[in-house]
Amino acid sequence: MQRRILSLGLLTLACGLALPAQASRMGKTPPKVAVTDLAYTQRVAEYFEAATVKSSGGVSANQHGIVATHQSAGTYVAGTHSYMEQRELRSFSSDIRGSLLKGGAVRLVQGKVFDDGGPQHTKAEQALNQIKTGKMAKLVRQPEVHDIIARIKKGEFSGADYVLFGTLTSMEFRDQLSPLQGTTSASYLFSLDLVADFSLINTRTYEIVAAFSAQGEGNDTKLLSNRGDIVRPNRGQVMRDTSRSLAANVYEQLVEQLDLPELPESGAEARGNAGAKQPKPQQQPETAVILR
């Protein structure tokens, strides 16, 4: 009987080189993922006016006198038209793609921009056309930004195995001025809070592989020497910090649900961890595994 002894250290190394858990769920090769921009809808109201005016007149004179005629006709329609506008927010998805690239477990595929059906006639143009022709304008059904299945079937994410679809649920800017007690100074805080819902969808079976809600936040704090000072918040920095915070939270959720590898530490974090005093590891007794 031949016996081979494999030390625990070599066995641990072999386990470390095994494929990550998500590879068995998504396939042996890294899957291709398309990340959409954050979809949102908002109610928009617009005031419109439509009018047609026709006028004609004439003057005739003879030996008996002067005759003047005038004819006019007009139609006037006005009102307020409200509708749901569907768009994609293209400001907070790049850092999410960057986090997926750093993780190295997936490959990214660029999807097409959402097709909203092109420019449509305004309500004023529709009303004016109805006045001229006497016919009601036919409503054209517009593509829905939240109908991700229809968008997949339409080919907006060609070549992708999965689509990470995000929907904006809350986005709020805040201005806060806090007087400092005992002084004439005050602190000014400008912040942005963003919440979005995400679903990771299989483009072939339409199965939802992961679903979660993620949050991003950023702020800019300034100290005012006098309470009447005027300051301009750094909106660019706040939006950048919010985008990075959202991306980190999205990847954290994917790590929990799909066992993705942790992101590598940045240079600053690595230097900080290297400078910190690490506890001395306890020596473990060597264990032998006998394979028969």
Describe this entry's structure for a reader.
The protein has 7 helices and 9 strands. A hairpin with a 2-residue loop joins strand 3 (38-62) and strand 4 (65-89). The radius of gyration is 32 Å and the shape is flat. The strands form 3 sheets. A 5-stranded mixed beta sheet has the order 5-2-6-7-8. Strands 1-9 form a two-stranded antiparallel sheet. Helix 3 (94-103) packs across helix 6 (235-258). Residues 1-27 and 280-292 have low confidence and may be disordered. Helix content is 26%, strand content 40%. The protein has helices at 8-16, 21-26, 94-103, 123-133, 148-154, 235-258, 267-275, and strands spanning 4-7, 32-35, 38-62, 65-89, 107-108, 162-179, 186-202, 208-224, 288-291. It is α/β, with parallel strands linked by helices and 292 residues long.
